[in-house]
Amino acid sequence: MELFTPDFGLIFWMFVAFAVLFFVLWKFAWPVILKNVxxxxxxxxxxxxxxxxxxxxxDNARQQAEEYVxxxxxxxxxxxxxxxxxxxxxxxxxxxxxxxxxxxxxxxxKVQIQQQQKEAEKQFRNQVSEFAxxxxxxxxxxxxxxxxxxxxxxNSLLDEIESKN
Length: 165
Prior knowledge:
mainly alpha; 2 helices; rod-shaped
């Protein structure tokens, strides 16, 4: 039974050993252990804070990227609308210029046709006049060959002049 009932000396020395060990641990080991636990807790807190900051930055970066993509899409749509408007404007300007140029060509052609027509009429009149003069000359020569015909022609011309006045 001595195992279950310890001796007073044993208890005393166990208590002294425990007190010395507790004092040494409390004086030297416990501050180091607490310091390491605190630094580890600080490190973990900083890691959590860093992770939260990184998550916030990542969320902000995603949001900014989405805004940039949306802005780029808006700008692309604006550019496409502007390009389409400019294309339509260029086509309309080209069409108008072509119509103006075609009208100029047609006007020029009309003027040339009118000039050529006048020139042809003038040449026709000249030729008709020449033919008429040739014919008149030949007729007059034939009629003037005898004196009686000459007198008759002069009298008829004088009668025409008198009837006009």
